[in-house]
Protein 1
Amino acid sequence: MHEVSGAWRRAARGAGLLTEDGSAVPTIFAEMSALAGRTGALNLGQGFPDDDAPAPVLEAAREAIASGRNQYPPGRGEPDLLAAIAEHQAHWYGIPLDPETEILVTAGATEALAATILALVDGPDDEVVVFEPYYDAYAALVALAGARLVTVPLRWPDFQPDLDRLRAAVTDRTRIILVNDPHNPTGAVFSREVAGEIVRLADRHDAVIVTDEVYEHLTFDQPHVPLSTLPGAADRTLSISSAGKTFSVTGWKVGWISGPAELVRAVLAVKQWLTYVNAGPFQPAVATGLRLPDATFTAIAARLRAGRDTLGAGLRAAGFAVSTPAGSYFTVADAAPLGAVDAAAFCRELPARAGVVAIPLTAFASEAHRDEYATLVRFAACKRPDVLEEASARLAAAF
């Protein structure tokens, strides 16, 4: 049998899926989901919702399928979806975009990230700065591109970075500053001071800012402010988002990237050799979703906020210390008050003890900084109210 090698091995090792001797390491997500299945525990580990998309979005998809829109869409995306994305950015954020040159539809946000990193990074001398803990794909994609991942730790309980550590991380070797805001896995929304420093550093070191904004409509205490709207940011920022989190259609994998035409063109040059195109009948449905009334988006955020509050109250009642998230699907809690010293061990015991599945925050951290998150646990609040209430009751009874 041939030994697997090359870029895949770099990506797998970067994501922590291979040991140095090449042995496969199962992901914590697969392990915890399997544990939920075996024990019947409520799965608050993986971040997918258990409700459905708004009815007009589903009906638009059915209509597109029935009317035969099932073949390859245009390479940049369906023109109506490109127009809807441009309308969305102008309406919500005052960002003017040319739908023909400054927007690209992708197979979810992850493909947009992959194509962007592969397009803009050129080997081991280039660095990509990310905030840690980070969405697990970031390390794999940077490794796939052969570049170096540089992390800036976020601090419990507000998960804002130390600006001196941020300044030390960004250098003339930095090609990309990758910003996930609202942030997965912590639920943080970065302060204006942090956002302004990111833009200042990118300008000083001639770096591209790449923003992962898939939770843009899921903020609870203040409206989302894209980094590209800050003074001096637009010309060096690529903004990425998707329909999956906002409309509860994570399986459709419809995302997009927008920004300066020359940068989007570079991403397209890579993207066309990845999936080429995707999700033909779902693209018109997402266009419908993006044009729904503002009240629809407000209601989606309100439902997630109520879930956050229900879960947070349940975690506090059980004895956890809780970081109240400002956005996203997730709530991070500290299990140290319950006697935990190792979040991974705690999460492996939790299904049997409480009938609830969660994910250790160390799964999203590099080896160098895992000690900073040793007892922190991530719970997904993107579930039905009855599920969150039952999970809260189980946790309170267990502890």
Protein 2
Amino acid sequence: MLFEIVSTVFMGGLAGYAYLQKSGSPTNDADKIKKIFSNSSWNVKGETIHLKRKRKIEGGIEYVYQVPLGFDRTKLEENKHVLEDGLNIRHKYLEFEPRDLLKIKWDKTALKQIINILTTKKISRKEIEFEFDGMLKIRVYNEKMKDRYDWNESYLKQGSWSVSIGVTRHGVVRHDFDEHKHLIIAGASGYGKSVILKLIVTSLVLQMPNDVKLHLIDLKGGSAFQRFKNLKQTTHFTREPKEAKEILDAIQKEMNQTYQDIVDQGYEDIKESGRKERHFIIIDEAADIADDKDCMEIVTDIARRGRGGGYYLIYSTQYPSAQAIPQQTKRNIPSRFCFVLDDATASNTALGQTGAEELPLIPGRGIYKNVKSQVVQTPFISNKQIKKCIGPHITFNPRKEDSDEHREGKQDRSNSFEFEEM
């Protein structure tokens, strides 16, 4: 029985390998990549890529190719899914590695174990990353990236304006607002836009509690930012488009004065001046004020001049159209974060490249672009965690409490008793 099983597996694999060699079909990822380039017309005047070396990396293999002169890497960037799909084509032969045999218990269930191993291999989907530095590096991973990373305090960096906004196979990706200033966030509803906004606010409050000033404009009815309304770090809060203009106008005037003071003191910007205070203007669903010319002029002005005075803009929308994200605003905000979108046009508007339309439908999965783009998974922070973290920073307006007590006192006076000492 044992001999028959081993013989069947070995002969089946050998037969499959011989067939593929004879038919010319690629038998490994390096051959598949070369074949995909040829079939997809990515070669240049008949010249194709040449494999120079390969090495094992954690979870996969990196292939380094020399590319022909005149190779257009944008073809690969825009058609990453073609390469990934090609690598995931399965052939009808027994595909296994010798070390898999060591996992098998050779008893009556041996055949079932073999079938499970082969089935598992066919279900797993390979994912790729690539970069170009004169040579084309394609990293092929045998397992997909994790679908979820739960947030914890290890993601914080105390005393820093650098915020953890994503995780890759290689570690945590941070956006340093003092270095890259503003940020555009886009993505379809339900895939992580509100989570990353709440993550950014919570991180800023915990890392720089005494120096961060928040100006929150939540045009989705207040669902995302309502919990931050009574933070001592919150200077402005609104969920009404009409009030947004007043708040933006006040921010612009304060920004102009701050920047003028910095320049008058002989400094170039907020960092050189040594001032610690930073202002974050966070607009959720900015498309709702896109038709307001006055509002958008101020938004563009903050994006253009705010960096010098420490006024940083986070501009978020789920409808990334040319109207929702004006060209002047985009030019002044090179850093982008985009979750899944419905088409390539929307992706190109938000990111300046396609790719967001090809993202898997996984909440938190997005593309972070800052000089170069990379696929990341945003750490998930629950509302319960947020409440616990920001609790010590919640304050209330004493004037409002005093007025409420005064009003209640007047209302209850008719039912009160007065005692006179005898």
